[in-house]
Design a protein that fits this description.
single chain; alpha+beta; Phosphorylase Kinase, domain 1; Aminoglycoside 3'-phosphotransferase, Chain: A, domain 2; 5-stranded antiparallel beta sheet; two-stranded antiparallel ribbon; 9 helices; Phosphotransferase family protein; Ser/Thr_kinase_AS; ACAD10-like
Length: 342
């Protein structure tokens, strides 16, 4: 809870929810490697609070105002799986950073280990969850953009090129040691940017641990979390990122830390591609590019967080191993380029 002033926060929340500050409970919610999430228990109900991580800032990925606007826009687009935004507070005096509050969706989130309590997912459960996950991704990609106002959240023209150059630049600024496979992958991506552009609303971090599931039926998706990188762009870039996180049984153990897709019953990456292609009008003949980009992006995200750890700006012990994620993802990207296989 470094730097967290809970007294100031409770006083602020007491005014917002019209209750005494002593009636408010705040506790951390275990999550990913990025923005911090806290559970707020108030007389008015439960809410989730999001704030940026401490220390080294990573581009605009931690823009609380933007994430709040995304959730507002999704409500207007009648998208049912985005938590309802409650409040955005820009002044840093209360919490040391801007933050926003949204509804807390009760349910189960599958992290990198099977649940120790409640129902354990079976092979059949994972099969259905795989399908429902891709269905949910397709639903998002097919949202109407103009009337809903979602189009205002991004610039789809030139999106792929901007992403390739942008993530390459982020890598250069966060690099802590030479990794030749990262340099080769960046060069290949720059030289192989597709000419065809697609347009849709995209999440940019769509994987199991960002899904809230029905605890009684773990294949039912109640909500999608972590909208900080959502925008309007090429849906195949979104699919590529999901494929990069979609670990299979033969993959390196360190790449299995982000998703339980390697367990029996889950779609394989090729089954994901097949299913998405069958239910989308987008052409996936160049899916290798988007997959390689996804691996590169995952590596850069890990590199950025690892740099924060190296600089002493983040002390989470999990961060120490992230440099290995960079190396393994980079090698996997290079192998995919050479073999043309996903």
């Amino acid at each position: 809870m470094k730097e967290m002033n809970f007294d100031a926060l409770k006083e602020f929340l007491g005014e917002q929810f019209d209750c005494a500050s002593s009636e408010i409970e705040i506790s951390p919610l275990s999550g990913g490697f990025s923005n911090l999430t806290y559970l707020l228990k108030t007389p008015s109900g439960k809410f989730a609070l999001r704030r940026p991580p401490f220390g080294y800032k990573i581009s605009t990925a931690h823009d609380m105002g933007r994430e709040s606007k995304v959730l507002e826009a999704l409500q207007k687009a009648h998208y049912s799986k985005g938590p309802k935004p409650i409040l955005f507070h820009e002044d840093e005096k209360v919490l040391g950073a801007p933050f926003f509050i949204m509804e807390f969706v009760e349910g189960k989130v599958l992290r990198n280990k099977l649940p120790t309590s409640g129902p354990i997912p079976t092979e059949d459960t994972f099969r259905k969850l795989s399908q429902n996950t891709i269905d949910s991704l397709l639903e998002l990609h097919k949202l109407e953009l103009e009337d809903s106002g979602l189009i205002q959240l991004g610039k789809p023209e030139g999106y792929v090129q901007r992403q390739v150059f942008g993530w390459t630049d982020r890598y250069k600024h966060s690099q802590t040691e030479p990794i030749s496979e990262m340099d080769k992958t960046a060069e290949w991506l720059i030289n192989n940017i597709p000419q065809t552009e697609n347009k849709g609303f995209i999440h940019n971090d769509f994987k199991y641990d960002n899904l809230v599931l029905n605890p009684d039926n773990l294949f039912e998706i109640k909500a999608v979390l972590d909208w900080e990188m959502a925008t309007v762009g090429d849906p195949l870039m979104d699919l590529g990122t999901s494929l990069a996180y979609w670990a299979q049984v033969e993959d390196s153990d360190i790449l299995k830390m982000f998703n339980l897709t390697h367990l029996p019953g889950n779609f394989t990456r090729n089954e994901v591609i097949e299913y998405y292609s069958k239910h989308s009008n987008l052409k996936l003949n160049n899916i290798l590019f988007y997959y390689v980009f996804g691996l590169f992006k995952v590596a850069v995200i890990a590199q950025q967080i690892y740099k924060r750890f190296k600089l002493g700006q983040a002390n989470d012990p999990r961060f120490a191993s992230l440099i290995e994620v960079v190396k393994v993802a980079a090698k996997k990207a290079e192998k995919s380029i050479l073999t043309e296989k996903i």
